[in-house]
Amino acid sequence: MTALTIADIGLDRLDEVRDLWVALHRYHAEIGSRPLVADGAVSWQRRRARYQQWLAGGEAFVLLAQRDGRPVGYVVVHLADGADDTFPLSARHAEIYSLSVAPDSRGQGIGGQLLDAVDARLSALGIRDVAVAAMVENAAALRLYARRGFVAREVVLYRLGSDPEPRDHAD
Fold first, then answer.
1. 137 and 31 in contact (C-beta within 8 Å)?
2. Domain for residue 25, yes or no?
3. Among 164, 165, 134, 163, which Cα is nearest to 147's?
4. Can you state the angle between helices 110-124 and 139-147, rounded to 10 degrees?
5. 69: which residues sit within 8 A by CB, 6+ positions away?
6. Distance between CA 36 and CA 47 in Å, rounded?
7. What is the SS3 assignment for 108?
8. Are 90 and 76 in contact (CB under 8 A)?
């Protein structure tokens, strides 16, 4: 197997991660993370716009993992400035906003290698505080992040307009 390369990419190469995002979006639907934006192309357009805004503003970096010139994984890290009102985060902290590995390359340590590269980059920037979110049904991602020292600090709940009417179950 050819060695994995991980490189920092910019706006000019952003579309190289499109298929990896769409594959992750599809995987989220398969494991039951619903409702999601139904159309993977629409989801990518929205995600790409966010990445583009952050990259243009110097608020993020994107690392692309390739094997034999083929994208097999990527990570987007959003950099934030300012103290948090709830958690004792440093004035500069980060969020791993997206991490995707190609379906045929999962289980080969690519996610871990991407996270190693993220840790190195954040260390060079002097950033120690990092957050990450994962779909509750994505057991593999939750295990990966736990092995990397992430612990649950907060749970985000959604009530979408398309959800059934809320019911009070108290007697």
1. yes
2. yes
3. 134
4. 40
5. none
6. 13
7. coil
8. no
N-to-C CA span, the chain: 61
Beta-sheet pairing, 92-101 with 70-81: antiparallel
State how far the Cα of 52 lies from the Cα of 58, in Å rounded to an integer: 10
Q: Which amino acid is at 78?
A: H
Q: How many domains does the chain have?
A: 1
pLDDT tens, position by position, 67-102: 999 999 999 999 999 988 999 999 999 999 999 999
Inside any domain, residue 171? no
Tell me the three state secondary structure of residue 35.
Answer: coil
Domain that holds residue 67: 5-147
- Is 20 exposed, middle or buried, given 0-12, 13-18 or 19+ CB atoms closer than 10 A? buried
| Pair of tokens at residue 54 | 């952050």
pTM equals 0.91
* Position 159 in a domain: no
96 vs 113: CA distance, rounded Å: 14
Range 101-110 burial, b when 16+ CB lie within 10 A, else e: bbeebbebeb
